[in-house]
Specification:
The protein folds into two domains: about 15-50, no CATH class; about 55-170, 2-Layer Sandwich (Tetrahydropterin Synthase, Chain A), CATH 3.30.479. The protein has helices spanning about 15-25, 40-45, 105-115, 135-150, and strands spanning about 55-70, 80-90, 155-165, 170. Helix 3 packs across helix 4. A hairpin with a 2-residue loop joins strand 3 (about 155-165) and strand 4. Strands 1-2-3-4 form a four-stranded antiparallel sheet, with helices on one face. About 25% of the residues lie in helices and about 25% in strands.
C-alpha cells in the first residue's frame, strides 16, 4: 500500500461531470464554472422524480455529569453518571443555503438548558426534587426544556434520548 487509508483522495472527474449533468438535467439549473459548491434545495431534486421532500434529522449530543439516586436502583445509593443527552431535530434546510441548523448553535442551546443540572445531585434540583430522576423522567423533562427554548425557524425537536451507559438509552418524543 502506497498511502495510508484516508490520507489521499483521487476524484474521478468523469463521474463528477456525469453527476453534475444529471443534477442539471433534473433541476433545470446550471452552475457557473467558478462555483465550488452549488446548493440546490431538496424540492428541486425531489419534485422532478415524483417524490416529496420528507426533511432531515440533525442529531446533537452533549454530556451531563451529575449524580442521582433512584429507590429501585442500588437500594437508593447515590451514584455518579456521565449521561449522554442526544437531541434529534427535524426540519428542512433554509432556502438557498442548504443548512438545516448549525450544530454548534443547537449544542449551545442544549447545554444552556441543562446547565442547572451539571455536577449536581439531581434529586435536589427541580423537577427531580419531586419526581425520581430515572432516565425516563430525565428524557421527558429535558425534552420539554429544550423544546421550550428552541426558537430556530423551521426546526422541531423530534426526540430526546438519555443514554445512561454506552449500550442503553431511553427516548422521549411527543405524539405527532
Amino acid at each position: 500500500m502506497q498511502r495510508a487509508p484516508g490520507s489521499y483522495f483521487l476524484y474521478n472527474s468523469g463521474a463528477a461531470y456525469m453527476l453534475g449533468s444529471l443534477v442539471q438535467r433534473v433541476t433545470g439549473r446550471a452552475g457557473r464554472e467558478d462555483d465550488t459548491l452549488i446548493v440546490i434545495d431538496d424540492d428541486a431534486l425531489a419534485a422532478p422524480l415524483g417524490r416529496e421532500t420528507t426533511g432531515y434529522e440533525l442529531g446533537v449530543d452533549v454530556f451531563l455529569n451529575a449524580r442521582h439516586h433512584v429507590s429501585n436502583d442500588r437500594n437508593g445509593e447515590t451514584h455518579p453518571h456521565s449521561w449522554r443527552i442526544q437531541a434529534r431535530l427535524t426540519g428542512n434546510p433554509e432556502q438557498g443555503n442548504g443548512i438545516l441548523a448549525g450544530s454548534a448553535e443547537v449544542r449551545e442551546l442544549i447545554e444552556k438548558c441543562l446547565a442547572p443540572y451539571y455536577d449536581k445531585l439531581l434529586n435536589q434540583v427541580e423537577p427531580f426534587d419531586a419526581v425520581s430522576p430515572t432516565s425516563e423522567n430525565m428524557a421527558a423533562a429535558f425534552y420539554h426544556l429544550v423544546d421550550e427554548a428552541l426558537t430556530m425557524p423551521g426546526l422541531k425537536l423530534d426526540a430526546l434520548c438519555v443514554w445512561d451507559s454506552p449500550t442503553s438509552y431511553v427516548t422521549y418524543r411527543e405524539a405527532a
